[in-house]
Specification:
The chain has 312 residues and is α/β, with parallel strands linked by helices. The chain has three domains: 98 residues, Conserved hypothetical protein from pyrococcus furiosus pfu- 392566-001, ParB domain; 111 residues, Arc Repressor Mutant, subunit A, CATH 1.10.10; 54 residues, no CATH class. The chain has a five-stranded mixed sheet with strand order 1-5-3-4-2. The protein is elongated. The N and C termini lie far apart (81 Å).
Length: 312
C-alpha cells in the first residue's frame, strides 16, 4: 500500500478554489463577524492559511476543507491568491471530522481579554485617537468604548459579561455609575432591557450629581415610586391555564365587582399589585442605602468628579 502523500503548502489562485462538498456551517455575509473579517483581509491580507484538498467534483481545482469564511471574504474583496495547506487522501468523513474538530477546539477570546489588549494598544501608542484605533481594529468606536469601560469593573462583573450573563452594553452603563454604587445595580444590569437600564443609570447619575453639588447625598435617591413593567409571558400563560395567584388576590383584597377584579388583574400583570409593590420597595431600599461621603479633617467636603471619584 503506497504511503499517503504529505501535506503541501502553496499559494493558490482564488479562482482555483471551489465550495466544499461538506459544509458544517453556512457563511452569513450579513453578520458583523463576516464583515469585520472581510475588512481585515482587504486591509492586511491573510494572517494564516486555509486548508484544502484536491477536488473530486472539479478536476484541477481545490476544495475548501477549513476556512470557508476567509475564502468567501477573499473572493469578495478580490484577493488574487490565498495561502493554503493542501491535504491529500481525505474522504468526506475525514473532512467532516476535521471541520467538527477545528470548530470544537477553536478558542474563543473573551470580551475582557479583548478589553485588556485594547488598553495595551492605547498605552503603547500615546495620543492614538478613537478614530485611528477604530480603523486599525476594524471595530466601531462604540464597541471600543464599551470594551474600555469593561476594564473599570470588578473581575466578578467582567466574568458575568464573558459568560453572557450581562450584555457588554449593560456593563458599559453600569461602569458609568460611581464605583461604590455599582454593586446595587448589578441585578438591574442583568435582567432589564438595555433601554430600561440606560434610563435607570441616567436618572441615578442625574440625582447623584445634584446631591453631590448640594452636599446632601440622601437626595440622590428620592422617594420610592412604583414603576409598571410587564410580567413574563410565561408567568401570565401559566396563571391563565391554572389560576393560582388570582383567586388569592381576589379573596385577600375582597373584590366585590367585576371591574375591581379586572383592575386587579391588570395591576398584577403590570407588577402594580400590593405584593409586587412591596417587593419592589424592598429592592429599592437596598439600592438607596445612602452613600457615605468621607470628609477631610478640616470639615470641608471632599470634591468629587462626575464619575464619583475623589479629586484632590
Amino acid at each position: 500500500m503506497p504511503n499517503p502523500r504529505s501535506d503541501e503548502f502553496r499559494l493558490i489562485p482564488t479562482s482555483e478554489l471551489v465550495e466544499p462538498t461538506i459544509v458544517l456551517r453556512e457563511v452569513n455575509q450579513g453578520s458583523v463577524e463576516y464583515m469585520e473579517l472581510r475588512d481585515s483581509l482587504a486591509a492586511r491580507g491573510f494572517l494564516n492559511s486555509i486548508c484544502v484538498r484536491p477536488s473530486i467534483r472539479v478536476p484541477g481545482k481545490f476544495e475548501i476543507v477549513d476556512g470557508r469564511y476567509r475564502w468567501t471574504a477573499a473572493v469578495e474583496v478580490e484577493i488574487p491568491a490565498i495561502p493554503c495547506i493542501i491535504k491529500f487522501n481525505l474522504n468526506d468523513v475525514d473532512v467532516l471530522a476535521m471541520q467538527i474538530t477545528a470548530n470544537a477546539v477553536r478558542p474563543t477570546t473573551t470580551k475582557s481579554e479583548f478589553a485588556i489588549q485594547i488598553q495595551r494598544v492605547l498605552r503603547q501608542h500615546d495620543g492614538m485617537t478613537m478614530a485611528t484605533l477604530s480603523r486599525t481594529l476594524h471595530k466601531s468606536p462604540a464597541w471600543i468604548r464599551w470594551m474600555l469601560r469593561l476594564i473599570e469593573l470588578k473581575p466578578a462583573i467582567q466574568r458575568m459579561v464573558d459568560r453572557g450573563e450581562m450584555s457588554l452594553e449593560a456593563a458599559y452603563y453600569l461602569a458609568k455609575l460611581p464605583p461604590q454604587m455599582r454593586d446595587n445595580f448589578i441585578d438591574d444590569a442583568r435582567v432589564q432591557s438595555l433601554a430600561e437600564f440606560k434610563a435607570l443609570v441616567s436618572s441615578v447619575l442625574a440625582q447623584y450629581r445634584v446631591a453631590v453639588k448640594q452636599g446632601k447625598m440622601e437626595l440622590a435617591y428620592g422617594e420610592f415610586t412604583p414603576q409598571p413593567w410587564l410580567r413574563a409571558m410565561r408567568d401570565i400563560r401559566v396563571e391563565h391555564e391554572k389560576p393560582r395567584i388570582g383567586p388569592n388576590l381576589l379573596t385577600n383584597l375582597n373584590c366585590k365587582t367585576a371591574m375591581e377584579g379586572w383592575k386587579l388583574a391588570l395591576a398584577w400583570i403590570l407588577h402594580l399589585d400590593q405584593d409586587s409593590i412591596e417587593r419592589a420597595k424592598v429592592r429599592h431600599c437596598r439600592k438607596v442605602k445612602p452613600v457615605v461621603v468621607r470628609r477631610q479633617e478640616n470639615s470641608h467636603d471632599v470634591k468629587l468628579a462626575t464619575d464619583g471619584t475623589e479629586v484632590s
